[in-house]
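User: Okay, second chain of the day. Same drill as before: sequence in, structure tokens out.
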Amino acid sequence: MSLIIEQPERFRQFDVVSDHSDHSYLNYWNKPAKSKKGINTTNNNNAANDAKTDGPEWFANPSSGVHKKIIKEWRVLERNLPEDIYVRVYERRIDLLRAAIVGPAGTPYHDGVFVFDVAFPPDYPARPPLVHYRSFGIRINPNLYANGKVCLSLLNTWFGSRNEKWNPGESTMLQILVSIQGLVLNKNPYFNEPGAGLFTGRKTKKSMAYTENAFIYSCMTMVYLLKKPPKNFETFISTHFQDRSTHILSACDAYMNSRAVVGCYGETSSDQVFKVSKNFKALMKSWYPHMVVVFKGTGASLGSLEQLMVEKKTASSKGNDSDVKKKKKQKKEKSSGFWKLIGILKEFLGFKKVGTEMGMKVNSSFS
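Assistant: Same drill. Structure tokens below.
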């Protein structure tokens, strides 16, 4: 008789849950009206009490326009969520929503998980939802602040043309999530900075440094998420990193040893040598052990990846270093030869020569 091993149920992309106790906007309606921009609660004396159960009466009434609109959003999300976006809504607080987005491949956010808490305003969809990024105090992107603020044209929290802003008749929660995944968590986040887009034709040193930092911050976020996962996503986060831990650590190893462009593990030839900053290497060495600990906590088998190995320079890389030194020497000799020629010309024209022949000082007076 063969044993039937039950496979764990796949984590659903969309689901309705009950526990909203750790949501960032849990007590939002308890705040005084003046602390909530554009939201009038003066005519709702029971808003604070309602928020503890079903939320304010705007949302608890199934016949209200906002209730119907939010339920419609649920249906759109349930049927149309793209790969790597997961959503949980709450049966007794339909004004709240939580989403987890997996960082896209080919970006410094690859394999990371980024969690967002959402609150629908009482006049939704006249105004866009409120969105808070669960940042752990880390600013991983120009559009995602350490305090949780999300800057996005579609949320009216970032500049943009009229057709990029929130449109009550057309814009949806799904568009917001897709925009964060595709436009915010992108390959070159540095160019999300105001004015940086003027130089998108070339990848500047600042862009490369920002990309390196973004990957480090993404790794830090992984550690914090596994230590304190948001409610209703505990299983997803643990399973995700159990499955992806070896790929993530292999990427760290490749970046550390200059075998891949940061953010592009698996997309570049391992025979090439890519420059990485000393700052990146130092931070990677510091955080790698923490990543190993939390990944092992998920049950992942890491093998040799438990130790970050810094490869010794190969004959090829030594040859590359030799070529660099040779070029620097040639440049220096060329520069010295130039100034030596200038000295000879000045002497021929009657200028006085003082000091040594190499690196000489020149007196500007005639002899």
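Residues 132 and 149 are 6 Å apart (CA to CA).

User: Thanks, on to the next one.
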